[in-house]
Amino acid sequence: MAPKEISLTRALAEIKFITKRIVNADLSKIQLVDISVGGRMSMSENIEKLTSAAKSNIDQYNDLITLRNRLKSAIIKANGTVLVEIAGTQMTIAEAIDRKAFAASERSFYVGVMQNILRAYKTFEATRVKVIGELNQKIESVIGRDTNKNSPDVAVEVDSITKLFLKNNEVKFEDPMDAKTKIEAKIDAIDAFLNEVDFTLSEINARTMIVLE
């Protein structure tokens, strides 16, 4: 069969149509055999017409399968070699398709991790407010509620009480890996990829020509 050049977009549409024809073939109409009694065929007029019909039926679907295989081979080759840039990252079409298929699961993972971080941060905020309240109670118990806290002597004492209290009770949000920032960046990168992948693939598929060997 002579080589034929078509766009990836057309190849994808053709392979979809051909696959549907093969999968939905009415097998009851594909007559390849018959039974004869005394030379009389039960369904065909004669052996010649049975042979002709059988060959036509099977050749029709063999040709479809062959064409589908040629299309699939050319598409796989193009997908593995043609490069695209999506959200600032260069990759092959195959890599883009694979990443798109996994993107929802990848995003779900990072969103789940971020929710854990945000829950921890909410607990941090609540704990910090609680400790600050305890510090204020400590100060008031030592210097009195109505004492002028702006006077120099009182300010020094408040500072001393605060430092001593926070030495053992300071509340910190410990994030040694800067996980919150990194996870946010991961989610943003996935969203940027998903925002671009479909139209980028559509554009490259329309521009890329493949040869059916």
Gyration radius from CA atoms, angstroms: 37 Å
Strand order of the largest sheet: 1-6
Overall structural class, as computed from helix and strand content, comes to: mainly alpha
Biggest β-sheet: count, sense, barrel? 2 strands, antiparallel
The stretches of 5 or more residues where confidence is low (pLDDT under 50) are: none
Count of domains: 2
Order of helical and strand elements: EHEEHEEHHHE
Quaternary structure type: single chain
User: β content, as a range?
Assistant: 5-15%
The termini sit apart by 8 Å
Query: What's the total count of β strands?
Result: 6
Q: Mean pLDDT score, rounded?
A: 88
Dominant shape: rod-shaped
DSSP helical segment count = 5
Helicity, as a percent range: 55-70%
Describe the structure.
The strands form 3 sheets. This protein has a two-stranded antiparallel ribbon with strand order 1-6. A two-stranded antiparallel sheet has the order 2-3. Strands 4-5 form a two-stranded antiparallel ribbon. The chain starts with a strand and ends with a strand. The protein folds into 2 domains: 4-81; 94-200. α1 runs antiparallel to α2 (47-81) and α3 packs antiparallel against α5 (179-207). The chain has 5 helices and 6 strands. The chain has helices at 8-23, 47-81, 93-143, 152-169, 179-207, and strands spanning 4-7, 36-37, 40-41, 83-86, 89-92, 209-212. By secondary structure, the chain is mainly alpha-helical. The chain is 70% helix and 9% strand. A hairpin with a 2-residue loop joins β2 (36-37) and β3.
